[in-house]
Amino acid sequence: MPPPYRDFNRIQFLLLLRAVFIGLCLLFGVRPGTDLLAASAGLRVAVTADEIQFRWDAGVHGTISIARLPLATNQLTADSAEAASSESSVVWRGEASQLGATTSRFEGGRDRLFAKYRLCSADGKEPLGAPQYVTDFSALPRGKGTLGAGASKKGITCLLDDADGVALGCAQVNENIDIGGLLDVRSSDPKAHFTYEGRTVGLNPAVVALLDRHLKAAHHNGQRVTGILLNNVRANTPASSPLVHPLTDPARVPIGPSAFNTATEEGVFYYRAIIHWLVERYTREDAAFGLLSGLVIGNEMQSHWSWYHLGNVDAKVVIREYAAALRIADLATRSLHEHFSIYVSLEHHWLMSASEDPTKGFSGLEAISGIQRISTEGGNFPWGLAFHPYPQNLFKAEFWNDRSAPLRFDAPRITFHNLEVLPAFLGQSQFLFEGKVRSIALTEQGFHCADDEAGEMLQAGAFAFAWKKVQALPAIESFLYHRHVDHPHEGGLHLGLRAHDGTPNVNGIGKKRAIWSVFQSAGTAQEDAVFAFALPIVGRTDWNNLISSEFEPPRTPFLESDKVVYDFVQKRESALKENVQNVARKLVGPEDEIQRPGLLQHPTPKGPGRLLFEMELPSEKEGDCVLLFEALLNHEKSTGAAFAVEVNGAEVFVRSLKAVEKVPAEISLNAWRGQKVTICWIVDALKDPGYDWTTWVAPRIVLRKSPTP
Q1: How is domain 563-704 classified at the CATH fold level?
Q2: pTM of the model as a whole
Q3: In CATH, what number does 35-136 get?
Q4: 211-250 tens-digit pLDDT
């Protein structure tokens, strides 16, 4: 661990931290502070067995109305559309001086709990605040059992043998729950079903039986179960299925996990129906079918292309749809059980994204800030965070060497190396729920066992160190190690406590690794004696002072303020190459900051190498069309190289650089606005191509708005 940052005045540090956080909030469209609640005009919504109850602030005057708006995101998306359409859904109209009103909870078979409500003018056309959801369930006769809360943090994912789980002392397990496999939405006469809001909802009996068996076994073994709620879409899934989000094309889904359909009324119906069924069935006091303590909503939503598939979409769309799924889950679960938990799912990329394509992924900080903004605007609710702090490199267990995981709120990644950043970040006032830090569950993370002599001991040592850190962080409620047994199709990773047995059976259980006995001793009287081997491996003499409470001041990473209309790094495969040895994406900058993408264009021994891109420049007249980049000779052993740029054959940039020299450039393209152009990037080794890492850093075309006079 790096030493705590001490040579910095604490007041200065807090002021800088606040300033940087506000800047990040503004970048991601989040308004910091408590002003969000003011946007609702103080409307608060509660539910009883028979009524929906409304209260509002005394600052509202005159004749007002309350409009009911649907949950489906594509029904009413813009504020103006909501206001214009709200007259037909007005549920109450009267004088604001009453400071409260009620309406019946049920409309035929429909439960009005599943709606959002808005204060409007008397005619329902002028909104008086943001739409609000039910947030007070205290009057309902809900379940109150602990559902396994308070159990040891030690858990395992993908448990293949119950007896082995008991021998390991697992107090927690996970259960993947695919709603597409559980629901039968195709059959007119399903073999199993339940009734919800007067409608028959089909179930697949074999899937129900398997889920019952797993949850009953876990309950029998005293294990707390966290469900991972998924919506697996395959190529053969009909696009017309109510479970398929309109933005999800089954033919393009790369792996399977996809977004829940929060965009249509029918999709929302099935989504809340199955959550209602799960909570009702698996929180019974008699635990007849086993117990479920909570649900992680989807999987790693900020890496949505692979794990919460919505197609190529902007981060704001993913956050909007995911926040809707999270809110509906809250309504469906808290109305039935007081202690049932729901979680946001994020992987370890924090200020950086796992994808270079912004339509396929974005940062965890953007995700959590966006979710917090939306949830606060609609009435705060107790979502938790299911986080996956894998090492920086999933194939290197030694997370204590992770350079991209510094002790900063703006860390590129959060791994076990800087795990204390996570509860500290969520401990900020704007992220609290009712004054408390939200629940943090580590629901998927493991350490690769390399196929060399040191592999098993490194894996076991990494677990020991991680376990000690988790135990020292009270805000973290669980550590579900991934996984019990290696999976032969997990990209070459060997994460298991046991190896795979090498048979065609994907669930074949092989030999125990060294980590098996280390995991078994965790949380027992033998822990320290068994863990002692790990201290020299991880570079420590004892397990004291594992957690730092003092962080480095945030750094301001590169943040794009202009609209990018062409990214040459992303488009590199479309370029025409002439006399170039190699073209590749190269990250530039310190690992503990957000590195900038570069276009590495390695020249040949003789003559200039050319990389040609064709594109049509935007015709917008507002502001300037600008080509931005930095020319960098990115190796200290280079003997020098030449750089040049041409636009339609006209030379607009030329420089000869020495080793590690970097030159920024800003070139106006206004003369070619609205035209089809060819931009050519040229490098020349001059004499010796060795170590000529000729790199164009962040080459892009932007539209820069003219400053306001």
Answers
A1: Jelly Rolls (2.60.120)
A2: 0.90
A3: 2.60.40
A4: 999 999 999 999 999 999 999 999 999 999 999 999 999 9
